[in-house]
Amino acid sequence: MSDEAPRKFNHVVVRWDGDNRFDGLRLGSEKSIRIDADAVTGPGPVDTLLCALAACTAVDVVEIMKKRRTPVQGLTVEVVGDRARATPARLTKIHITYKMRGAGIERPHAERAINLAVNRYCSVRDSLDKEMPVEWSLELS
What we know:
Structural class: alpha+beta
Distance between the termini: 52 Å
CATH architecture of the largest domain: 2-Layer Sandwich
Number of strands: 6
Strand content: 25-35%
Order of helices and strands: EEEHEEHHE
Radius of gyration: 17 Å
Shape: globular
CATH superfamily of the largest domain: K homology (KH) domain
């Protein structure tokens, strides 16, 4: 018997809906997200990746702050991705701005939560090129 934990899988399906529109969903789910390369009916593929990075880190930030007994009452995450002027126009640098509010939240604790989320816990960040800079800032109110 192996002591190794079973491997985790994410299995998604993307269905074409005409033009440059696609609906993606987790296999077995009925909930989908719209991905539109023309950015008319939803975010494009790279925007969707940046949204995934924002959501992944935000989940960890909220959980870490909750464990500190200073729960977040509001959080907005903005992500700007610089792209190469080449084909493919891959991401070359990312900046994430966390706009956080909550009673009793102290800046050093919020910054530590963000640093842990971005640099240790987020599987989306860890799946990106390690050489690509991912910087962040905090706006606390």
